[in-house]
Amino acid sequence: MRKRKIKIRKKSQKISKFIKRLITKIMDNDVTGMAAQLAYFFLLSLFPLLIFITTLLPYTPLNQDDLFNIIKGFAPEETFNMVRKTLDEVMVNRSGGLLSIGIIGTIWSASNGMNGLMRSLNRAYNVEEGRPFILARGLAIILTIAMIFVFLLALLVPVFGKQLGMFMFSYVGYSSEFLQIWGLIRWTLTPIILFIVFFIIYLLAPSTKVRFKTAAPGALFASLGWIIVSFGFSYYVSEFGNYTSTYGSLGAIIVLMLWFYLSAIIIMVGGELNSLIGEKNEQ
């Protein structure tokens, strides 16, 4: 019994020491300041990213309402209404299809957020960007496009998951009980897909070699943390935060920037967590 208490005490001391080191690392790397910069790049990337996704929708079984339903599930109401109104205006005035030359500029603009995130993660790992500009920017574009297709997959599964489940289970001869289980599984795929996205970003974005096992903890923290913070902030804004009375018509923009800021902090802390675990494993 005494040995067990000693083990528990040592374990708690290790956890406490790790948390203190993480907090110190977060403060030393000015995570809140970097998150403010990252929120700005996220804002610059938002509408080019949504334009690109919307342009791809005709090539999928999805429509624009399916896209907005996913955004509505996480974004505060004021922000959602502003984003939807702005995107509708942009798409009405936009001419040309997916293969137009304008899409190149759209992808480039959409990758600004990823490019900013790569620089922020380099700071978390205390490394300079050692890759050539074209290679680094190309990686940012590839990661952005990959994130878009994963996002489209996240849209497809909840919308058409029932039909897919019926096809699979009827083919192998399972009963309707398995369809009910599949119905529960397909709605849990959003956190899993978020984890995959963050895992890939934490693995490839920093200009240093990151091991699989050290990228996973930050990805788990970021995916769960982002969902919790998004829902919590959305509830706060809808119930308590009246930004319109303070900022007027800019209220929706302020809410959007605050959401991006909180999201950037979560992502940056995930990167700092991975970096600290990597340092610990190398000792």
Mean pLDDT: 78
Number of helices, where a helix is a run of at least 4 consecutive DSSP H or I residues: 12
Rg over CA atoms, rounded to whole Å, is: 21 Å
**Silhouette:** globular
Helical amount among residues, as a percent range? Answer: over 70%
N-to-C SSE string, H for helix and E for strand: HHHHHHHHHHHH
Quote the beta fraction. under 5%
Main sheet: strands, sense, barrel? none
Overall structural domain count: 1
- Helix and strand content put the structural class at mainly alpha
Pick out the low-confidence regions. Answer: none
Cα distance, first to last residue?
31 Å
Strand elements, count: 0
Can you walk me through this structure?
- With 283 residues, the protein is mostly helical.
- It has one domain (34-282).
- It has helices at 2-28, 31-56, 64-74, 77-93, 102-110, 112-124, 133-172, 176-186, 189-204, 212-239, 243-247, 251-282.
- It is globular and about 70 Å long.
Task: Please name the defining characteristics of this protein.
mainly alpha; 12 helices; 0% strand; globular
Compile the SSE list and pairings.
Layout: H1 2-28, H2 31-56, H3 64-74, H4 77-93, H5 102-110, H6 112-124, H7 133-172, H8 176-186, H9 189-204, H10 212-239, H11 243-247, H12 251-282
Helix pairs in contact: 1-12, 2-5, 2-6, 2-12, 4-12, 6-7, 6-12, 7-8, 7-9, 9-10, 10-12
Short structural description:
The protein has 283 residues and is mainly α. It contains twelve helices and no strands.
